[in-house]
User: What shape does this take?
Amino acid sequence: MNGKYRILLPVLSLTVLLAAVFYLQPRAMSYFGLNLLFNLAVPIALATIAQMMIIMVNDIDLSVGTFVSFVACVTATFLNDAPLVGAAILLASILAYAAIGALIHIRQLPAIVVTLGMSFVWGGLAVLLLPSPGGAAPTWIRTVMTVKPPLVPMAVVACILIAGLTHVLIMRSSTGTLLRAVGGNAQAVARSGWSVTKLKAGAYALAGFFGVLAGICLVGLTTSADANIALRYTLLSIAGVILGGGEFTGGRVSPVGAVLGALTLALAGSFLSFMRLSPDWQIGAQGAILILVLAVRLIFSRRSRKWKGAENG
Amino acid sequence: MEVATGAGRPKPDVPLVALSGACVHFGAVRALDGVSLTVSPGECVGLMGHNGAGKSTAVNVINGGLTPTDGQVRYGHEDGRKGTGAARARACGIRSVFQELSLCPNLSVLENLRVPHRDLTGFGWRKTAAGRIAGALDEIFPGHRIEPGMIVGDLTLAERQMVEIAAGFAGGPTPPRLVILDEPTSSLDASIARQLLEHVRRFCAKGGAVIFISHMLGEVFEVASRIDVMKDGKIIASRPASEFTQQGLIDAMGHVANEKAVARAAVESSQRIGEEVLKTPEGLSARKGEIVGLAGLAGHGQAEALARFFMSRSGKLARVKDPEAAFVAGDRGRDGVMPLWSILRNLTLTHLPSLTRRGLVDRVAEQALGADWKKRIGIRTDNLGNLILSLSGGNQQKVLFARALASSAPIVVMDDPMRGVDVGTKQEAYDMIRTEAANGRTFLWYSTETDEVCQCDRVFVFRNGQISAELTGDGITEENILAASFQMQGAGA
Assistant: This one.
């Protein structure tokens, strides 16, 4: 699929879903309604960006969900009670992510196994911190997450900011280009004298950074934390990256698409509630939406390949 | 006193790179065996040689990617400094354009320049990169239709190669002074190739240097000022291009002492070869009991031809018990060995359907089959239950041979099976192949080694993915194979 048109599908799927929601519930078409619809999408978007950093270097991260839960627990306890210690813990966890990335590359381990193992580590740490739901959100996060900008609600502003900043970082900056090059052809990067280990560690560190942001935002919205608060983020984030036009291999990712994908998935939940579908069916229905979008994408990419073949004779 | 001569122009008497007695050994294999070579500004060196002659090893030593086990590499820096290593090679303006594409398909043309050009950072780097790559493309390939913003994955193969070449010549903080081109024209059409050759000439006239590797003899003669011929890891001839003829070059690449293909019993082969058993659309054919060789330079479509044939004859569920073709892998790690399995299980893999009783593997029959083949081909192990990786490379390859031969398939496809196998095992394998052929089996044998190909009854030589010659009987000589592997006509033809 041509890179320029790659972004059209996530835009289209979000528009269709949004139109459907507005049709079912016209009152959602307001400042307050939009904020409610997209509020919880902000941490999901951040987690999706974190996942995208890993997929960008041809790996996959199965620990995003438990990592965000862990960060949420740290935020609701240490960051609230002793901000310096809390910040130090979060910084150390980002460094841990970088170390995992370096380890995976140096030892040529399968990322899927290592991150699956790490998911139990993060999950265990989260339970140790908060055996039962509780804690409190630091007031400054509360303030940030409940701010009411004029005209456009906070959730929408935040998503635009996240998409814009990560687009500049990954798609426009020279460092981001180098990181994508690792996903595209790591051998060529190494042959030009770059340390692929350092680059991969950098990509993982970025993932850790955005995971931390996701956890903090989540606590800002929910005001308290729980060791299992974000478990479903792992699959949501992977689905979001793919929905947004990314591919599992080859360094083909799109930050704007990833944010749109996350919004689509978050909206799908609300849409199904408006349809008065029982929550039992929601996960299945979300999966169905995902399969539908991916099927459409497959048809498009087949078509464009056919055209290209015809052009080349 | 050394005085910098401005504009990065080195003094002509300081060589850009000098190898003296460079040796590279991979285990027992001597990839480079005492090579001495200097490239001075203004020179275009044509580096010629057959498969495994050591061309790519030499290139990797020159660009600093490989450190020689013995001998020296010196780079002449423009300020007179000298040094070694990959970083120094880069600092001296040595660039390589490799045969296998080394672009990132997910990035745009200008973004790809970011990987080799380390100075492209900060605000406006895209503009600088776009200027550099567009400038190089315009200079080398005037009339090209490549925009710097295009995604490389959307370009055609030829356009990708053009981008890669342009990146090699693109200016930067360290302008290119020696560009190594490894088969640069393999996917370019004649008019584009001509533009490249003209650029190479201009580049050398301005004081640059090029190492040019190509299987198109016409091109080499057109641009090279000197031709170095490599064989068995040594440079065996190094003369100005004007002193070579195309035929003389082919002869130089062959064996110095012309060993006649070893006692191939012509009478015996005429008895064992029967009717035609296979014919592919591309022109490959074989008869019953025949050993058919696929030759030519590595990567010219032989492995693909084998794979196409094998895939068309296998994979049918109904014929699992009675396969039409069996496969012997050369790249053992990729498509041969099951690394976690025992020798026995690796050996009986293709034979499994006939060892099955009521859906379960008949262990006794499996053991018997394994013991039989262990004796027949002499796998050196005391217990077939050992892991396959406990064997040496040669013995692993024997197991793969046994796997194919144990099946009832009348056709055996071999994809360069002697890669990294010691001489003793090779002889045993040759005998095995001849015995099996006498029993009526047909072999399709791709090999990168000419003396192996010379053992075949018939040889198809591949060039650019197509069969360029069919040799039989006494026509199978190293000279003929070399002549068919390299394109003899002029570059424009």
